[in-house]
């Protein structure tokens, strides 16, 4: 069971930091145009898009949808751990 928890933690942390890095890249001009920016966009945007549709930007520029997306990701990881603990024991 501890191996499953560590795999979930590793995958969660990787995706968590991918989202953080992608959001930080949005503050710098032309950074998303390189290979890493495009790759992160392809991996992170499908997850962030539903949150951006629900949560509009504040004052037209401040986007809080990644914060909500990270909270939902944390809840999903905890839920997955709980379900696997229930099933595996």
Radius of gyration: 15 Å
Distance, first to last CA: 8 Å
Overall tally of domains: 1
What number is the mean pLDDT?
89
The helix content is: over 70%
Please give the largest β-sheet.
none
Low-confidence stretches: none
Description:
There is one protein chain. With about 90 residues, the chain is mostly helical. It has one domain. Helix content is about 75%, strand content about 0%. The chain is built from 3 helices and no strands. The chain has helices spanning about 1-25, 35-55, 65-89. Helix 1 (about 1-25) packs across helix 2, helix 1 (about 1-25) packs antiparallel against helix 3 and helix 2 crosses helix 3 (about 65-89). It is globular, with a radius of gyration of 15 Å. Pfam families: CCB3_YggT. Belongs to the YggT family. This is YggT family protein. Keywords: Membrane, Transmembrane, Transmembrane helix.
Q: Top keywords for this entry?
A:
76% helix; 89 residues; mainly alpha; globular
Task: Sum this structure up briefly.
The chain is an all-alpha fold and 89 residues long.
How are the elements arranged and paired?
Blueprint: H1 2-25, H2 35-54, H3 65-88
Helix pairs in contact: 1-2, 1-3, 2-3
């Amino acid at each position: 069971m501890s191996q499953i928890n560590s795999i979930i933690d590793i995958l969660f942390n990787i995706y968590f930091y991918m989202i953080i890095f992608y959001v930080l890249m949005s503050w710098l001009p032309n950074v998303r145009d390189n290979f890493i920016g495009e790759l992160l966009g392809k991996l992170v945007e499908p997850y962030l898009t539903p949150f951006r549709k629900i949560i509009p930007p504040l004052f037209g520029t401040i986007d809080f949808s990644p914060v909500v997306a990270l909270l939902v990701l944390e809840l999903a990881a905890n839920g997955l751990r709980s379900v696997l603990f229930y099933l595996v024991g």
